[in-house]
């Protein structure tokens, strides 16, 4: 059985040329050859900025690049037909497709509505800064170009909890609609982090929940995607996604994979969300990303033996999707915490070649980010192929040194296994067990960072080397 390897197939600054779905089709076979068998595509539906919208300013979830709305027929990435072709071509290449699902908020409404609201604190959403007052909110979504095709649901103020713009007073703020309450079972930042942006969906509203169920089934029927990446789950009632994912799995009769973005370095928050959702989804291991960021900027001051302490990978690897960077952490974005270039190969070697978690490769690391003059991580394709060819069998961990840590995989009857060593300091060597089946074999560094050969002893042990600030992946010599 092949290892699962995910790729996030976009970065924030992709060209606004409506051609990404076509590029995806052209890359499908190459990605499969490099070991990718699961791909997370960007949001496919029309955003408030039309073809200039990355996809998170959701306007119409039923417009996959089919209707002349928000200034364009295609989305930033292309037309509906091109999206469906991209999904099909990826699946034909043996790659499962995850749709990026953004259900927290809506933006770019077609009409304003007058309604009563209470202004609340930016840093304490339970703090009322005013009494009820009349505001004008952009909350009515009529989708005039699409009409009632696919859905005749009209969004209005009753379907939302609040907004961040009063058009009557022409001012920003956080305005909770009168007689509404923020959703519970959300992140505790700002006292209650239900509200994020735009018109915030009221997930206690039965009409809203029914429409989101209808949309999910339509989207699955239309696109045939294999699973979901779920956006901004920390801002949404945990019970909603617990029930929504179960409903989608029941509808398809498939145990569809789902991974949520809960952006917090606090492991306890991630564990709590997994518990609240009764384990229906995996989560991106954000604490591990922050650990990589810290190490890369740490000038060898981090204790590498503690790499996985207080991470999802270290405590619940079954629900962990590991990553190094993504579209939010890349330079210029709100959550910028970009891992430094020198450490990228080390971090990818760790997440790709270990047994724990499902690794997610970032498009910007694989292809580069021209907007910022960032080159691809040159070792990345080789590490991905090594995962596919050698990262199998029982794992033995050697996280027992301040600077030099590693692990081995014994391999299986058909697969050889490997030994991985990384150092954020001056480098050195470590004796590690690779399995009795490998006694007498010669190992070489597949990345060619160390030129020596290592002979495995009668005890299945070998003394492996790594250069300073580097990674070596040792495999049996053919």
Keywords:
478 residues; 8-stranded parallel barrel; 10 helices
What does this structure look like?
- The structure is a single chain.
- The longest helix has 18 residues, at 206-223.
- This protein has ten helices and 24 strands.
- It is elongated and about 80 Å long.
- With 478 residues, the protein is α/β, with parallel strands linked by helices.
Number of strands: 24
CATH architecture of the largest domain: Alpha-Beta Barrel
Strand content: 15-25%
* CATH superfamily caption of the largest domain: Glycosidases
Structural class: alpha/beta
CATH class of the largest domain: Alpha Beta
Main sheet characteristics: 8 strands, parallel, barrel
Q: How confident is the prediction overall: mean pLDDT?
A: 97
Number of domains: 3
Instruction: Give me the CATH fold name of the largest domain.
Output: TIM Barrel
Global outline: elongated
Q: Work out the radius of gyration.
A: 24 Å
The amount of helix comes to 10-25%
- Enumerate the strands of the largest sheet in spatial order, edge to edge or round the barrel: 1-2-5-12-13-14-15-16
Q: Which residues form runs of ≥5 with pLDDT under 50?
A: none
In short:
By secondary structure, this protein is of the alpha/beta class.
């Amino acid at each position: 059985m092949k290892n699962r390897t995910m790729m996030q197939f976009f970065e924030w600054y992709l060209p606004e040329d409506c051609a990404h779905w076509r590029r995806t089709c052209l890359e499908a076979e190459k990605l499969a050859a490099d070991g990718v068998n699961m791909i997370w595509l960007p949001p496919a539906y029309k955003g408030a900025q039309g073809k200039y919208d990355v996809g998170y300013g959701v306007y119409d979830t039923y417009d996959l690049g089919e209707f002349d709305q928000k200034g364009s027929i295609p989305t930033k990435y292309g037309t509906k037909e091109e999206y469906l072709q991209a999904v099909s071509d990826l699946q034909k290449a043996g790659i499962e497709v995850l749709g990026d699902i953004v259900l927290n908020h809506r933006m770019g409404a077609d009409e304003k509505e007058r309604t009563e609201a209470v202004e609340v604190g930016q840093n304490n959403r339970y703090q009322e800064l005013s009494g009820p007052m009349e505001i004008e909110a952009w909350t009515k979504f009529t989708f005039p170009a699409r009409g009632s095709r696919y859905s005749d649901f009209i969004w209005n103020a009753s379907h939302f909890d609040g907004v961040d713009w009063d058009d009557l007073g022409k001012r920003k703020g956080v305005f909770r609609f009168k007689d509404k309450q923020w959703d519970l079972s959300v992140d505790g930042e700002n006292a209650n982090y239900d509200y994020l942006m735009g018109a915030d969906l009221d997930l206690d509203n039965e009409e809203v929940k029914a429409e989101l169920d209808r949309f999910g089934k339509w989207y699955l029927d239309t696109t045939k995607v294999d699973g979901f990446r779920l956006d901004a789950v920390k801002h949404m009632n945990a019970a909603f996604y617990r029930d929504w994912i179960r409903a989608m799995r029941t509808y398809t009769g498939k145990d569809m994979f789902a991974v949520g973005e809960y952006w917090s370095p606090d492991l306890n928050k991630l564990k709590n969300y997994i518990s609240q959702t009764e384990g229906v989804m995996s989560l991106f291991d954000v604490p591990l990303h922050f650990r990589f960021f810290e190490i890369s900027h740490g000038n060898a001051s981090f204790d590498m033996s503690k790499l996985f302490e207080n991470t999802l990978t270290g405590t619940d690897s079954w629900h962990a999707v590991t990553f190094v960077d993504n579209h939010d952490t890349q330079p210029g974005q709100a959550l910028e915490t970009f891992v430094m270039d020198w450490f990228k190969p080390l971090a990818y070697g760790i997440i790709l070649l270990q047994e724990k978690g499902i690794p997610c490769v970032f498009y910007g690391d694989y292809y580069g980010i021209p907007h910022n003059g960032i080159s691809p991580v040159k070792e990345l394709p080789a590490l991905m192929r090594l995962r596919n060819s050698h990262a199998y069998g029982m794992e033995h961990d050697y996280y027992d040194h301040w600077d030099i840590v590693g692990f081995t995989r014994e391999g299986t009857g058909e697969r050889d296994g490997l030994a991985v060593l990384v150092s954020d300091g001056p480098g050195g060597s470590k004796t590690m067990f690779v399995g009795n089946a490998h006694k007498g074999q010669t190992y070489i560094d597949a990345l060619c960072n160390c030129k020596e050969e290592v002979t495995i002893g009668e005890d299945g042990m070998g003394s492996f080397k790594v250069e300073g600030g580097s990674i070596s992946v040792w495999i049996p010599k053919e």
